[in-house]
Amino acid sequence: MKNKIKYLIYAITCITSLICFSWAWAGNQHHMVYFEGTNHELHVFKIHGKKPGKTLMLIGGIQGDEPGGFLSADQYVDMSLYKGNLIVVPRANFYSILLGRRTVNVDMNRKFAGGGKRTYEAKIVEILKKLIDEADLLLNLHDGSGFFSEKWENNIRNPMRYGQSIIADCDTYINPNTGKKLELGKIARQIVIEINRYIANERHYFHFNNHRTHSKDSRHKEQRKSATYYSLYRRGIPAFGIESSKSLPLELKVFHHNLAINAFMKYLDIIPETPAVRIDPPKLKHLVISVNNAMPFVVEDGQTLHVSKGDKIMITHVESNYDRGIVADVIGYGTVNDVRKQIQINRKTKINVRKDHYQCGSVNIALGKQQRVDHGTVAHAQNRRHSDLLFFWVKINGISGYYNNYERIPIVKGDTIELVEIISSNYNSNDLTVNFKGFVPNPKNNSGEDRGFVIRTDCDLQQKFSLNKEGRIYHAVSSIDNQKIGELFFELVDPLLSYVVFKVNKNDKRCVSPGETIYAPENAFFELIDCKTNIQKNKGVQIFINGENSPRLLVRPYTTIDWNALTKYARHKKKQRYRLDIERESLLLGTIYIEIDPLRVDHSTISVIESSQGPVYQ
């Protein structure tokens, strides 16, 4: 039986636990996920600039009925920075966002004082507190009621309203431990001037709103349990609440939040690429669903999936015009987010897909009467819109991806490729042959069928079979009875090291290019933070350090270099020179040098000297 309209687009296998902490050491962004697979899944993004600088933290969606804040924060996740750093938590309270409510159990922005039941809100706040410690300034993004005004005008515009204001817990704060003076009012007024330059309607201007939270006569004592109060009074870190008005259209709220964030970034000398305002209506394209753990297939928006009573389905991927804030809810089963959960179907139902709180599509689940077919071919598309679909299921470095016929895939030399399967609407995959030109798994028996083999692109490919015999573009061909029906191209590029980021003296971050030398005093503090390459998630990349007669040690991310383990083998104790080799498998990507000079007694004298291969970062 020919397959019905079935094709694979994208599927990722993930590890799920109560608290799932994962991070991608890839380029200048770290993406961490907590509580993965739960309704309150928390995503944290750390973005590092090429040059060291201040760190700004953004919290959006701490209260779920304020979309201006979390949609604005979400636009900064993909930002590249030239200087400085961002910590972005776009949806701090994802569960309340999905429900479109301010709270679920308790108000998350009232949990920073501690105490009470250990709800999911309290667990998330514990993580937010640790992130605040890494920041130089905190912005908590909100949508507030009405319009703040120092004088009473009417019920919508008065001193008790929050909208269109920058809130601080005091005008001036002096840290009792350090004596450091923070002039929050001065900062906020400076930011207000910057923001209002871009707002055409004077009635929408921002104003500084001093809550005087710590004062005995404050009207806002409840804010003593908030994120900004914790940041300022417990950690000595300046913090502001940014309040756009709930009375404004959504796109305007997001725009005003962006203005505030950009102004604070300018104040901190964080140099960004400003994101555009993107509020396109969310739209579901299709769901990737497996039935009874068989090969998954796609059901498009508005189509119907027929299963038998008792079948177990799993939604492995949601394809829409947005990447974040997307959930799929099997109505009457599971929870509000049923992605990657196995659900037994006993009655007809529907899968509703939402971005945040907005409905963007659905798929029907019906109980079919037709006989069960092997290989999971139990899907029936009521709305057949494609007559000849063909897709390649490929694993790159073990990660599944699903590619259109004739698509070109960029590959870094050293990546691994596995042709898993070919999916066609007109042919049974068992009747097809998939041949990767230039790869021979068994020279004694070259059948031309290359599905299921892991291909190492640094040693398994024969250049003479590449296009133009240049060793750059290879192709996989799918055929039936020697007639080509599909083709996929792989374009190889050399692995490239751009720079390595170190934390020095426990505060400053230094960006060092290949070939450069770092000069530092004895016992200097060095911690590896990041390694920027063109390799997906830095797969296989390792950094080793060694010096004169010293062992070759592996340097892991976020670990301090152990100088004692290195220097005890050195014959010359006065001045030592070490090399850091950045490698992938046996391939050297680049080398950075560290020279320890005992005469440099001041740690502030750490410097990077320019080489012929890269710039200087002082």
TrEMBL record:
The entry's keywords: Membrane, Transmembrane, Transmembrane helix
Domain D,L-carboxypeptidase peptidase positions: 50-271
Pfam hit, one: Peptidase_M99
Membrane-spanning intervals of the chain: 7-26
Domain of life (superkingdom): Bacteria
InterPro entries linked to this entry: Peptidase_M99
Xref: Gene3D superfamilies: Zn peptidases
SUPFAM superfamilies, per the entry: Zn-dependent exopeptidases (SSF53187)
The protein, known as: D,L-carboxypeptidase peptidase domain-containing protein
Organism, scientific name: Candidatus Magnetoglobus multicellularis str. Araruama
Highest classification ranks of the organism: Bacteria, Pseudomonadati, Thermodesulfobacteriota, Desulfobacteria, Desulfobacterales
